[in-house]
Amino acid sequence: MTSDASKLxxxxxxxxFWTSGxxxxxxxLQAGWPDGWARPRIACPTxxxxxxxxxxxxxxxxxxxxxxxxxxxxxxxxxxIARIARESFDVVHVTEPxxxxxxxxxxxxxxxxIPVPWSLTLNGNAYPDVSWNHVxxxxxxxxxxxxxxxxxxxxxRVPSPRIGQPVLMQxxxxxALRHPVDAQLPRASHVIRSHNGAHVVGTHCRIAPDKGxxxxxxxxxxxxxxxxxxxxxxxxxxxxTLALQQRYVPEDDRVPAEARWxxxxxxxxxxxxxxxxxxxxTDGVIVAQHHTVHVSxxxxxxxxxHEYALLEAIxxxxxIVQPQHMIELECDLRQYSYDWSKRGIVGALTDEHRGLSxxxxxxxxxxxxxxxxSHNRRRVAxxxxxxxxxxxxxxxxxxxx
Length: 401
What we know:
The chain is α/β, with parallel strands linked by helices. It folds into two domains: 5-174 and 386-400, Rossmann fold (3-Layer(aba) Sandwich); 193-380, Rossmann fold (3-Layer(aba) Sandwich). The protein has helices at residues 21-31, 78-88, 104-113, 132-137, 193-196, 213-217, 219-222, 238-248, 284-288, 308-316, 345-350, 354-367, 374-383, 386-400, and strands spanning 10-13, 41-45, 74-76, 91-94, 118-122, 141-147, 167-170, 200-204, 226-230, 261-263, 274-277, 293-295, 319-323, 336-338. A seven-stranded parallel beta sheet has the order 3-2-1-4-5-6-7, sandwiched between helices. Strand 12, helix 10 and strand 13 form a beta-alpha-beta unit. Helix 2 (78-88) packs parallel to helix 3. The protein is globular and about 60 Å long.
């Protein structure tokens, strides 16, 4: 095997392929891989060895967040993936240790059978279903782990009989900016803005409880904000999505939860602002260009650090609002923050979150002045720089080979 990092043939192995930060991380690694280095390829195993019918869809056919507009470069059964890794790659980087329950047993077997040295990313905040014994006993696991902000499993904090002490590299999520740092992007036309020129407060993500969508939707009730939600409902989150829908559209069980709705203050006297749901999307940066202010309300304990939706919003030129527990102090962003508080779906939809309202109103106030988009982009370009992060991580992987 070569000791020249630029010549390493790298497989990025994703346990599943859907609309998620895990897949976005793999795609960002590939997009920002150092110039002149061998380009990595993204692989995803399936039990049948065939591509999923939920991959490569357009937004109109993405009815759930378990579908995606993207396709991996390599698809195969677990044994196919192991064979391809052995024949065509020097190292494998696993982008997430967990897998859906229906494939968890053979995913753990695949990790143990990877025939070349492999490393790992922890992109989530909790892994109760991962068999760390399988991971740590895997013959070719290097023990090098890219830990994005969040909880580190205690099993990785102690020495393992085979690899010794795992190398836990605490690094931010990689992100390659699409727009120049100093670009001042105008807001794209929007169904709400077209009516009255209003600034739009928005978010784009999976429509699911952990993302705090109810808190963001309720901004239309408690503030004069014009709120837009973009994203496909998460599979299994139908009751939550239906509860959101029935708060803001006529009570009709025949309307599917992923139905698109547009509610204005003239339609609903209980709203001070307006609410729009645009369904699934295929490009987060393009979606965010329709929003003036991006709001994150991710539940405390579910995730930590800068999520990809926030980085895409900065790329698109949005002002940003996020809870205190998601802030990365090492990255000096200009942002509006608030203290997150736990609420059920009904409370989130009906009781005002005063801190969130104040943060959003402050951002909207500043949106009327000339907002310099370059500051936050510059911070992202420096702190989340994919090329720098890949070189730092790869150097440690080579050291362990």
